[in-house]
Amino acid sequence: MNDFSKLRGRIKEKIGTEFQFAKLIGISAVSLSSRFAGKTYFTSEEITKACKKDILDIPKEEIGLYFF
């Protein structure tokens, strides 16, 4: 199971709430919770959206630190 603590910290720092983050990447809060619980996975499209400068501003070379 992945450790999403770094991602969750980035969400809190840049966005504020996980609910708002889920809205920004186009998924429901329930879907986001499912991903954090390891029941489903982030899609490449969701990861690409999340890493954009106006959302989490994560450089390509750091994606693995947050999502895998």
Gist?
The protein has 68 residues and is an all-alpha fold. 57% of the residues lie in helices and 0% in strands.
Topology:
Layout: H1 5-14, H2 18-25, H3 29-36, H4 44-51, H5 63-67
In words, what does this structure look like?
The structure is a single chain. With 68 residues, this protein is an all-alpha fold. The protein has one domain: 434 Repressor (Amino-terminal Domain) (Orthogonal Bundle). Helices cover 57% and strands 0% of the residues. It is built from 5 helices and no strands. The chain is globular and about 25 Å long.
Task: Outline the low-pLDDT stretches.
Answer: none
What Rg, in angstroms, do the CA atoms define? 11 Å
Terminal CA distance = 9 Å
Tally of individual domains: 1
Give a short account of the largest sheet: none
Q: What is the chain-wise order of helices and strands?
A: HHHHH
Q: Count of DSSP helices? A: 5
The total strand number stands at 0
Principal-axis shape equals globular
Report the sheet-strand fraction: under 5%
CATH architecture: Orthogonal Bundle
Share in helix: 55-70%
Structural class: mainly alpha
CATH topology-level fold name: 434 Repressor (Amino-terminal Domain)
Top CATH class: Mainly Alpha
Mean pLDDT, all residues:
97
